[in-house]
Design brief:
heterodimer, A: about 120 residues, B: about 110 residues, 6-stranded mixed sheet, 5-stranded antiparallel sheet, about 0% helix
Chain lengths: ~120, ~110
């Protein structure tokens, strides 16, 4: 398997623009997570899905952030409008319930977002 | 998420030395995990612990789940240059919401 695939790897955008980050989980995995990593706040869980349904979005910072999972093989995280403080590395991860070490979910390589 | 205190924040070690880092929480967890992150990549799971008092090894890595369920440590024996990276502890309690520590940055002197 190719692992969790995120795109783009790097994104530079101007303040106020819409940004869409994409994720393809490992085939067969039924949980998908979006994390944000910054120097100040470390790794923070934003939202997670089970069987394409959002389970907990309490980590989503504000209404400018939204996430969707239209099918089992694709998820998006959208920021509209983007602000400089959204600059961070955004990780997607996935796992399979009931699988050994299912807490050791597989992370993608991340999208480094810079909002100028 | 829960507050995890990870220490030390960074360390320089000599190749061949043993390394120890730990993580404490103000709340109990029923799962502790240790991850390693290399530059430009996502975290990768090293060891998972599911029972208080559990001691688990993975090659040169050994981790323990504290009896109080509020702490864990990770040891790396006979460090080598590829041990460089950031090590994160993470905890969970009855769901998939992992809380991560701030990380320990390890740099190896050859």
């Amino acid at each position: 398997d190719a692992g969790v695939i995120q795109s783009p790897r790097h994104e530079v955008t101007e303040m106020g623009q819409e940004v869409t980050l994409r994720c393809k989980p490992i085939s067969g995995h039924d949980y998908l997570f979006w994390y944000r990593q910054t120097m100040m706040r470390g790794l923070e869980l934003l939202i997670y899905f089970n069987n394409n349904v959002p389970i907990d979005d309490s980590g989503m910072p504000e209404d400018r952030f939204s996430a969707k999972m239209p099918n089992a093989s694709f998820s998006t995280l959208k920021i509209q409008p983007s602000e400089p403080r959204d600059s961070a590395v955004y990780f997607c991860a996935s796992t399979l319930e009931g699988f050994d070490n299912n807490y050791g979910y597989t992370f993608g390589s991340g999208t480094r977002l810079t909002v100028v | 998420g829960q507050q995890l205190n990870q220490s030390p924040q960074s360390m320089f070690i000599q190749e061949g030395e043993d390394v120890s880092m730990n993580c404490t929480s103000s709340s109990i967890f029923n799962t502790w995990l240790w991850y390693k992150q290399d530059p430009g990549e996502g975290p990768v799971l090293l060891i998972a612990l599911y029972k208080a008092g559990e001691l688990t090894s993975n090659g040169r890595l050994t981790a323990q789940f504290g009896i109080t369920r509020k702490d864990s440590f990770l040891n790396i024996s006979a460090s080598i240059p590829s041990d460089v990276g950031i090590y994160f502890c993470a905890g969970a309690f009855n769901d998939y919401k992992l809380s991560f520590g701030a990380g320990t940055t390890v740099t190896v002197r050859a």
